[in-house]
Design a protein that fits this description.
The protein is mostly helical and 322 residues long. 78% of the residues lie in helices and 0% in strands. α6 runs parallel beside α12 and α9 packs antiparallel against α10.
């Protein structure tokens, strides 16, 4: 990212931007969920929700600051300042133990039997590559599909301001982004406790229903109602950061979990970049986002069905083992 402010060639910008996007996705999605999964045997949904919500907090704090810096200093200096800020904020993570089992530390909520069992599995995985490998089956295919659907849903986020302009709202289209960021924060904070109280299946279907209601509202209303609709659409941000990691945790053990998260993240990152570009092409071609919004609604419905199917099949296998 530090190279971008000094870049004057569009081709170089594309290449560096690709690395920034991939690196950012792996940092946010891969490392966070894996570290938290190792540290929290209990209350993992709440831990994921709290950590994920900080992206919404920082978005609300930094967006107006960066906007003012761009006006005052130009985008290059503003980008450099933002990059250095991110670097400084990440310094404390260098001193965090990523794997408690390697240092004989006990994860939150772990009992002695669980601790000994998981530690033994992780040690075996280090010496036996086959032990840590995951096989390609219907379960893994399901994870890839829900990550692809999720990418299709959230890729529309980068087009919100343009969408607001295209539907000719009576207020500043950037307000859509603001309401989305508030929804992003609120629903991430709510999701973890909701999972703890009602279970992953009920919480996931409820949140996806909220996303559908919000997206439908964005499609049919141009007046003030579009703002709360965009707020509801903000719930889509928790799918990638919280919902899917918890589904993956339900389906795979601690040893397999990092590999599964990595596979899902690759699928998500590729499709997210692709669909963002495709949505732009559609708008350029027909002058509106209505086909995109319809597709987002359909993708959310299919995602809900897929998650229900994966969790149901997993529950059947658990019962059969008992």
């Amino acid at each position: 990212r530090i190279i971008l402010p000094f870049t004057h060639n569009i081709q170089v910008w594309w290449v560096v931007g690709a690395f920034v996007g991939i690196g950012g996705s792996f940092l946010a999605g891969l490392s966070t969920s894996i570290v938290l999964e190792r540290w929290f045997v209990k209350k993992l949904p709440i831990a994921l929700s709290i950590v994920a919500s900080f992206s919404g907090v920082m978005g609300m704090i930094m967006s107006p600051i960066i906007g003012k810096l761009i006006i005052a200093l130009g985008w290059r200096k503003a980008l450099l300042i933002a990059t250095m800020t991110v670097f400084v904020l990440n310094v404390p993570t260098w001193f965090v133990s990523l794997n408690p089992y390697e240092k004989s530390l006990v994860p939150y909520g772990s009992n002695e039997n669980e601790y000994v069992n998981i530690k033994a599995q992780l040690e075996t995985a280090k010496t036996d590559e086959k032990f840590a490998k995951i096989s390609f089956n219907s379960k893994l295919l399901g994870i890839i599909v829900i990550c692809i659907l999720n990418a299709s849903i959230t890729a529309f986020i980068s087009h919100l301001a343009t969408f607001g302009t295209s539907v000719e709202t009576s207020f500043n289209p950037s307000l859509l982004v603001t309401f989305y960021m508030v929804g992003n924060l609120v629903f991430k904070l709510l999701f973890g406790p909701f999972v703890e109280k009602s279970g992953l299946k009920v919480a996931s279907i409820t949140m996806l229903t909220i996303v559908i209601i919000g997206t439908v509202g964005m499609m049919f209303f141009k007046n003030i109602i579009i703002l709360p609709a965009t707020f509801l659409y903000g719930a889509s941000a928790l799918i990638y950061t919280t919902m899917i990691p918890l589904v993956e945790k339900k389906l795979y053990n601690t040893v397999e979990y990092p590999s599964v998260v990595q596979v899902g993240l690759v699928a998500y990152t590729v499709i997210y970049a692709l669909m963002g570009y495709v949505y732009g092409l559609i708008f350029d071609k027909i002058g509106n986002y209505y086909p995109v919004v319809i597709y987002v609604i359909i993708a959310t419905v299919v995602l809900a069905i897929m998650i229900l199917s994966l969790l149901r099949d997993n529950n059947k296998k658990v019962l059969q083992k008992k």
